[in-house]
Design a protein that fits this description.
By secondary structure, the protein is of the alpha/beta class. The protein is built from 20 helices and 15 strands.
Length: 561
């Protein structure tokens, strides 16, 4: 669950911190108080696009920090597989600092990418706004919802289906790419034989190009090498004032006084070691110079061999390994064309077998979906009735066709609804208003509550287009959903606010002659006062306060059932 939200220097927020509770967390406030900023700050922390204009005027940066407490093993395992830091008690701290031109995201103090943050967000939290309600109109989204409801049996079958489909696509692609006539086949064979012979004749060995390049560079710079080694040999030698000569004199000088101070014995030993090293070096350098020189015959041989290899690289690959891999493909190609009819027959039979297996798997997946569709439709109808869809009919239509076989099968799903008696079932996109879509989404979340691993749900604009009795029904349904999930909801309706387990007020005020948005948790007395404001507007009378208290009591009683 989401434990806390800390926001600093964001839009109208100077600095604020909110601690959320279990169950239903409600946020209310006057229009324009900054309620959208609170949800917006959560979205920013979870990877939404950031703009430097969001930074509060006069500040260098904006900061949003979320603290989550994760208890479900499945979620913890997913997060640890992402190699993100999680405290032993399941605490996850997610922070985003927004600066001019860039933003920095951290999880547990470690810098992470926006992509990682978004992947983490999918595990921890589910945010529903107007855009998410509209997504219900997509048949692709409807099929996703049905598949999620269908559970593990469908997950395993779809995995088998996807694997089979990938194999089938590979075979059909291979058949298409190698569907050639006799004349083309002859040209391909001729070219492949020429290329294979060219590579074979070179008798390439892995790594030889690197060794040859070293030899080539050495021979190419033979004169420069010889001059440098000769100069170093002379400078370190025992003639003409070389280092060896100087060390010899130094040993002689120290040795002449070593009897007067035992400390000098160590100096003498060090100088003797240096002299020994110089002797070894000089012998090695002399041996090197005696064998050094430019070998014109070897240089010519190496240069020609490198030319052959580089020519092959320009045609068949950037390394000897790639050239040899290309050679193996040529051999396979030649074998295929030499036995072309047999090859085509085998491939066509393989395609036929995979198509048969694929159709069986599609059919199996479709049967699971159709069974789940009936159960989901029944559950949805009950949930919609609870949300004041009095005479509602709900059905999930599954249309199957072998003409659209894909990795997910060959089904299309359509959520069909009728909200008035005597009206035919029609697709959601044809009948559902904004307010109805928000209730349908809430009904879905309620039905899916037992299957949903995500503990924290945020609802923005859940009350769009509803009022009166319908608003109370939505409130009751959110109270039920809040028994198994943590809900955070912004609302303008007192019926929904009355159901709050934790109630927050968002309001504007002045600080140092600047407007700021603040959020504070309300106790029972102040919660009733806020409900009264929502009920009565400007004039909050004793009757309005009593109505607010009664609404709060009714909400508390409804939670007991």
């Amino acid at each position: 669950m989401l434990i806390s939200l800390h926001v600093k220097n964001l839009a109208l927020i100077d600095e604020t911190e909110v601690y959320f509770g279990n169950g239903l967390n409600i946020m209310t406030g006057e229009t324009g108080a900054g309620k959208s900023i609170i949800i917006g700050s959560v979205n920013l922390a979870l990877g939404a696009k950031a703009d430097k204009d969001m930074i509060r005027t006069g500040a260098d940066y904006a900061l949003v920090e979320l603290v989550f407490q994760v208890e479900k093993k499945e979620q913890l395992d997913k997060i640890r597989r992402m190699e993100l830091p999680v405290d032993d008690d399941g605490t996850i701290i997610l922070q985003r600092r927004i600066m001019s031109g860039k933003s920095v995201c951290k999880v547990g103090g470690e810098s992470v990418s926006l992509k990682q943050v978004k992947a983490l967000a999918e595990i921890l939290i589910d945010i529903h706004g107007q855009h998410e309600h509209q997504s219900l109109l997509s048949e692709v989204k409807q099929l996703e919802i049905l598949d999620y409801y269908s559970g593990e049996e469908l997950v395993e079958r779809k995995k088998q289906l996807k694997d089979c489909y990938e194999k089938y696509k590979e075979v059909t692609k291979e058949l298409s790419q190698n569907d050639v006539d006799e004349e083309t086949r002859k040209r391909e064979v001729s070219l492949a034989e020429f290329e294979a012979a060219e590579i074979s004749a070179a008798e390439l060995e892995i790594g030889e190009d690197e060794e040859l390049q070293k030899i080539y560079q050495k021979l190419l710079n033979a004169q420069k090498i010889q001059e440098a080694v000769t100069t170093a040999y002379q400078m370190s030698g025992y003639d003409n004032g070389g280092a060896g000569d100087a060390i010899g004199r130094a040993i002689k000088e120290i040795r002449s006084v070593v009897n007067f101070d035992e400390t000098l014995e160590e100096f003498e030993k060090q100088l003797l070691d240096i002299d020994s090293l110089l002797n070894d070096y000089n012998r090695a350098a002399a041996d090197y110079l005696s064998e050094a020189g430019f070998d014109a015959e070897l240089f010519d041989k190496v240069e020609k061999r490198l030319d052959v290899i580089n020519h092959l690289k320009s045609k068949y690959g950037n390394s000897i390994g790639e050239i040899l891999a290309y050679y193996e493909k040529l051999q396979e190609k030649l074998e295929m064309y030499q036995n072309y009819d047999e090859y085509r027959q085998q491939l066509e039979q393989k395609e036929k077998n995979l198509k048969t297996e694929l159709i069986k798997l599609c059919d199996s997946v479709s049967k699971i979906r159709k069974k789940s569709a009936e159960n989901l439709a029944d559950s949805m109808k009950k949930a919609l009735v609870d949300l004041n869809f009095i005479d509602v009919e709900f059905e999930i239509k599954i249309d199957s066709s072998e003409d659209r076989i894909g990795a997910d099968g060959y089904d299309q799903a359509a959520f069909m609804i009728s909200t008035n008696p005597g009206e035919a079932l029609r697709a959601l996109s044809q009948v559902a208003s904004g307010g109805e879509l928000s209730r349908i989404m809430l009904a879905l979340k309620t039905v899916l509550a037992d299957k949903d691993e995500i503990e924290t749900l945020i609802f923005d604009e859940i009350d769009t287009g509803i009022s009166g009795k319908t608003a109370w029904k939505v409130s009751e349904k959110m109270g039920i959903l809040g028994q198994k999930h943590q809900l955070i909801c912004i609302t303008h309706l007192p019926q929904i606010a009355a159901m709050a387990d934790t109630h927050f007020l968002i309001e504007k005020s002045l600080k140092d002659e600047r407007t700021i948005t603040q959020i504070c948790e309300l106790d029972d007395e102040r919660s009733i006062e806020e409900l009264a404001r929502m009920l009565g507007g400007a004039a909050i009378t004793e009757n309005v306060l009593n109505n607010a208290k009664e609404m709060k009591d009714l909400a508390a009683k409804s939670k007991q059932y």
